[in-house]
């Protein structure tokens, strides 16, 4: 990987370095328009000057509310130059949820794309700290006018890698979202992901995952850190993804399993995907059968990352372990620890390491981990151990160095004193030809404490699939206590922006 100078903040250094080395090389492409490194650097400098002029000192927050656009990176780089902390809000939030995030982050300046202004309108008067709102891409294009009013020279360096760089909000699947705060050292550590993915200066990365989530943001940062060309897509709709891969000769992309499922349902042979070298995936468990299908259809390398908002990256399942034969059972694992990462599996009660093959809580020590939750010391102390390990809340076990995930600890079902891991039940039920999607949750039971409940999306080929058929199928492959006692049929499963099923929503009834 090309060396990025360490004398200033990592994000600012990315933009400055490549604007100096390859000023005319393609940096960002969006909606048919490509900006080179020189242009992105100059525009980022203007953002930095605009922010620095709006409030004295560093460490103020600037919030971006919008889909994947080049302006996101101009704000990200510009904030780094000015010593400000970037925050990207989930644009799928409802106005009341968005109000919480904005007032929790307390930004001075807010950038919003014109298609999302309507989400701010109902709560605009309740935004307590926002002094300036700049609209991107409308007919008057406030953003472009705002840029032209700023000095195109980079302000004096005011930050280093020890200073906070950006905040990412958790999905909020269990309650109120929390903001994970990352300093420059953690940002710089993410650059190594480029080498793991095989991304170089000659690569073309498609960034289709939302940039307000760890997988989308840090894949793009790693690619830009090595001078790669980053093509931005506002959504991950399968046809859009395939068309962009063909048009721009994309070599690498990152997706979630739900997107892979949609992609493999398309007529892949209709598109020229010959430039595509690597598909990375992350965000939620991958069905091994779906993965085998994708390996056959796409005929490129596959790579799995496991991590969280708080850790970014923990393990990787490399291309060589994506073997269709899978004699070692590695295809269903989360892979091996990334470089400089240590993984432990501990008893959550004693906090002692468990034996190989025994399920416990996954703990990780990684240089990409957050430094803290924003203004939440109690929550920070709950997940960050004194020795630097972070409690992930995931249940799993180690076998031969490979991490195998079972479930979130909070999702484990305890029925009659027995632990049931929903993913095990889901994997079995997903093989039924009449089931398109399934999620398993625990439901209260007077007799057993909890019982297993399956929430099923029927496959179009079997619209009359019954509860009894699902339960009988499960009992062919699972112990009785693991089999569902209740089956609910729904049109679709609720998911967050990263493709994870919102089991909290399923439990609400």
Automatic annotation (TrEMBL):
Question: Would you say which domain of life the source belongs to?
Answer: Bacteria
Transmembrane region(s): none
Pfam families given for it?
AMP-binding, AMP-binding_C
- Every AMP-binding enzyme C-terminal domain range: 424-500
Q: What SUPFAM superfamilies does its record include? A: Acetyl-CoA synthetase-like
Q: Where's the AMP-dependent synthetase/ligase domain?
A: 16-374
Recorded protein name is: AMP-binding protein
